Amino acid sequence: MKKVLLITGPAGDAQGWGDLSVTQHICQAIIDTGNDAEIAFVNTMEEFYQAIEEKSYDIVWSALYHISSKSETIGMSEGEDNWLADILDTKKIPYIGPNAATMKALIHKTHTHQILKEAGVSVPYHFQIDRGDDLPDLDYPAFVKPSYESRSKGISDESVVNSREELEKQVAYIHTEFDQPALVEEYLPGQEYTVLMLGNGEHQEFLAGRVEVDEKMFGKYPILRADLRGVGVTKIRPINHMTKSAVQLTKDAMEALNCLDHVRADMRLDANGKLKIIEVNGIPGLKPIKSWSPQMFTMHHPSQEGPMEDYKHLIDHVVSSALVRCDLA
Ligand SMILES: Nc1ncnc2c1ncn2[C@@H]1O[C@H](COP(=O)(O)OP(=O)(O)OP(=O)(O)O)[C@@H](O)[C@H]1O
Ligand SMILES: [Mg+2]
C-alpha cells in the first residue's frame, strides 16, 4: 500500500481538477482502491513547504500548478520560484502528472501551440498579443481568448471576431479583464472532441469522446462559452468514424509534449474538416460524473455498479500508472 499526498488550495477549481469536495472524492477513491491518501489544503508557499516536509507519503498529486490566493483565475507565476513541480523536482519528490517543463508548456496555450507546430502536429494559426503589440494581419474569422485560463474563462460569442475593429476590442478586453496576453487563433467552426491519455507505456489508453451540447444552448456560434461550463450541459458521446484520427492526433501531441499519467487534449474541426488541437490540459477536471475525463472513462469502461464505481477505477488507473513509472509499485 502506498500513500498519495493530495495538494490543493483556493485555486483548485480554477487551476486543477475541481474544488475541495472533488479532492475529497479523489482521496476516498484512492483509499477504496487499496492505497492510502491525505489532503493538504495550502494557502501559501509556507504551507506547501510545511506539507511536503512534515507529512509522510510516497507520491504527491497536485491540483495546483502554482500557489495562488486567487480562486477565480489561473493567472501566472510572477517569479519562477512557486511552480510546485519545480520544487518537487529539486527535492526529488515523486509526483503524479507531467514534469515541470511540460506543465509550464501546457498552462501557456501559445507555448503549447508552438511546441506542437514544431513537431508537425496540427494546430490553428496563432498569435500572442501582449499589451502595446501591433495587431497582426489575419484571415477572419479569428478567435480571441486568454493565454492561460481554463473553464472557458473570457469566452463568449464576442470571442469570434470578423474584423480588425472587433479584434482590437476583444484583445483589449482580455488585457484589461485578465491582465495577460491575448491569444488570437484561427476560428475552428466544426465539431469539438476531447481525448484522454490515461497511464503510460503498456498500460496506456486513449479514450476519445465527442463533446455534445444541446444546439438550443448555442448563441451565434457553436462554442463552449463560459456560461455553458460547469453547469452540466456538456455531454461526452461516442465519436465513431473520427476516433482513429482524434486518437492519432492526441498521441502525436502527447509525445511532442512529453505528457504523463493523466492528460486531456481538446480539439475541433477547421472549416475544411481537418482536426486541430485547441489545447492540452495538464490537470484535467475530475468532478465525479460531470468532468469529461470521468464521463469518458464511464463511456469506455462502464461497470455494473455505475459511474461512481468507474470513477474509483479511473483514479486507481492514474495512481497505479504513476507508481509504476516512479518505481514505487
Ligand atoms: N480556435 C477556436 N475556435 C473555435 N472555438 C474555440 C477555439 N478555441 C477555443 N474554442 C472554444 O472555447 C472553449 C474553451 O477553449 P479552450 O479549451 O482553449 O479553453 P479552456 O478554458 O482552457 O478549457 P478547459 O476548461 O477545457 O481547460 C473550447 O471548448 C471551444 O468550444
Ligand atoms: Mg478546453
How would you describe this protein?
It is a single chain. This protein has 329 residues and is an alpha+beta fold. It folds into three domains: 3-95, Rossmann fold (3-Layer(aba) Sandwich), CATH 3.40.50; 106-121 and 189-325, ATP-grasp fold, B domain (D-amino Acid Aminotransferase, Chain A, domain 1, 2-Layer Sandwich); 126-186, Dna Ligase, domain 1 (2-Layer Sandwich), CATH 3.30.1490. It has ten helices and twelve strands. A five-stranded antiparallel beta sheet has the order 10-9-8-11-12, with helices on both faces. A four-stranded antiparallel beta sheet has the order 4-7-5-6, sandwiched between helices. Helix 2 packs across helix 10 (307-325) and helix 9 packs across helix 10. The longest helix is centred in the C-terminal third of the chain and has 19 residues, at 307-325. The protein is globular, with a radius of gyration of 19 Å. The termini are close together. It binds adenosine-5'-triphosphate (ATP) and magnesium ion. Magnesium ion is lined by residues 266, 279.
Topology:
Layout: E1 3-8, H1 12-15, H2 20-32, E2 36-41, H3 45-54, E3 59-62, H4 84-90, H5 100-107, H6 109-118, E4 126-129, E5 142-146, E6 160-161, H7 164-178, E7 182-186, E8 192-198, E9 205-212, E10 235-237, H8 243-257, E11 262-269, E12 275-281, H9 292-300, H10 307-325
Parallel strand pairs: 1-2, 1-3
Antiparallel strand pairs: 4-7, 5-6, 5-7, 8-9, 8-11, 9-10, 11-12
Helix pairs in contact: 2-10, 5-6, 9-10
